[in-house]
Write a structure and sequence with these properties.
The protein contains 5 helices and 14 strands. By secondary structure, it is α/β, with parallel strands linked by helices. It has a single domain (about 1-224), classed as Metallo-beta-lactamase, Chain A, CATH 3.60.15. Strands 6-5-4-3-2-1-14 form a 7-stranded mixed beta sheet. The chain has a 7-stranded mixed beta sheet with strand order 7-8-9-10-11-12-13. It is globular and about 45 Å long. The structure holds zinc ion. Zinc ion binds near residues 59, 61, 126 and 147.
Length: about 220
């Protein structure tokens, strides 16, 4: 099982970068966690769009979904469909995605399966309904926080994972609805689990992370 960071920024991309999007690949299954700006072009460097088994959305904020709209045009042009697992949030984004008619939309439920991957969702704390997901393949599991503040639910959901991708969208000591790098370091140390700090805000200057945390690099593949 491996995960490739396609977009590491949020809420907008830094120079040459993309926003939240991660490609997870196993032996026979490929899925995307979020589908932010730049995702569609970058994804095709690794897998054909027809080989993607599902796209999972943590929540429907634009920096996590925006390349779905051009993807929808592509699917219409090729008469293709793709499974889209996402929160059934009452918002305009949900309506637009439904209206495309090219996505097989499946609402998030706690335990799901896509190919060889078991998916466990937990509701996090964010202004818009948002879920973490743990992707498990045999004894290895990737935890993706989506967007959230620090909370007990996050600690519980991330426990037992092999690698974490954590939303580090806020500066230390500020009140934005994200984690800070220090909070990510605390989570990683407490759970004794390596973490990739992502959802990097281009406007924040981050300190050097501690031993358990590394800052995400786009186009880098992490093995689990
Ligand atoms: Zn968000």
């Amino acid at each position: 099982m491996k995960v490739t960071v396609l977009g590491k920024y949020g809420p907008y991309a830094g120079n040459g970068g993309g926003t939240s999007s991660y490609l997870v690949r196993g032996e026979n299954t490929s899925l995307m966690l979020d589908f932010g700006s730049g995702a569609m072009g970058r994804l095709q460097k690794y897998v054909a769009l027809s080989e993607l088994d599902a796209i999972i959305l943590s929540h429907l904020h634009y920096d996590h979904i925006c390349d779905l709209f051009p993807l929808g045009y592509y699917l219409q042009a090729c008469d293709m469909r793709i499974k889209l697992i996402m929160p059934d949030t009452d918002c305009v984004q949900n309506k637009i995605l439904s209206d495309f008619g090219t996505f097989d939309i499946v609402p998030v439920s706690q335990n799901m399966q896509v190919g060889e991957f078991k998916l466990n969702f937990e509701k996090m704390r964010h202004p818009l309904e948002s879920y973490s997901v743990k992707v498990t393949n045999g004894s290895r599991s990737l935890f993706y926080s989506g967007d959230t503040v620090f909370c007990d639910e996050l600690m519980r959901a991330a426990s037992g994972s092999s690698l974490m991708i954590l939303d580090c969208g806020k500066a230390d000591g500020t009140k934005a609805p994200h984690l800070s790098l220090s909070e990510a370091a605390f989570i990683a140390k407490t759970l004794q689990t390596p973490a990739i700090a992502s959802h990097i805000n281009p406007a924040v200057s981050y300190k050097s992370p501690s031993g358990f945390v590394t800052v995400a690099e786009e186009d880098k593949t992490y093995m689990l």
